[in-house]
Amino acid sequence: LISDINYKAVVSTQSTGHQRIQEEHQRIAEQQRIQEQQRLAEHQRVQEQHQRQAEQQRIQEQQRLAEHQRIQEEHQRLAEQLRAQEERQRQEDRNDDQALFEARLELQKQKEEHKRELEKQLQAIQLEKQQLQLE
């Protein structure tokens, strides 16, 4: 009977010790599981942060490129506007030169015409003077 009680006590003690070891293993396993979850959550948080930063950089780069393109287009528009203005000015200058040339030509013609008229008048006066002298 005593040996049976001792046996039960030993088995009970072994069982309790075994149960405590199992509980300790479970506690450690749970702790490791929580730590792994925390590690994964931190890893995911860092990945998401990197993705947000990469997206933000991508957006900033797109904005920078769009601004650069807008400035290039504005420069191109202004350069074209300047070229057109310079061409208009050259055309106006050519027109002015042509008008000036034509005005000078017309003035030269009028001068020659006036000179011929004066020469005719002078010849007429000289002829009249000669006729007067003959009379």
Which secondary structure elements does this structure contain, and how are they paired or packed?
Layout: H1 2-134
Instruction: Calculate the terminal CA-CA distance, rounded to whole Å.
Output: 196 Å
Specify the number of helices. Answer: 1
Helix-residue proportion: over 70%
pLDDT averaged residue by residue: 91
Radius of gyration of CA atoms, rounded to a whole number = 57 Å
| Strand segment count | 0
Strand % is: under 5%
- Low-pLDDT runs: none
SSE topology string: H
Note the overall shape.
Answer: rod-shaped
- Main beta-sheet annotation: none
Q: Which structural class is indicated by helix and strand composition?
A: mainly alpha
Q: TL;DR of this structure?
A:
Helices cover 99% and strands 0% of the residues. The protein is built from one helix and no strands.
Describe this structure in words.
- The protein is an all-alpha fold.
- 99% of the residues lie in helices and 0% in strands.
- It has one helix and no strands.
- The protein has one helix at residues 2-134.
- The protein is rod-shaped, with a radius of gyration of 57 Å.
- The N and C termini lie far apart (196 Å).
- The model has no long low-confidence stretch (mean pLDDT 91).
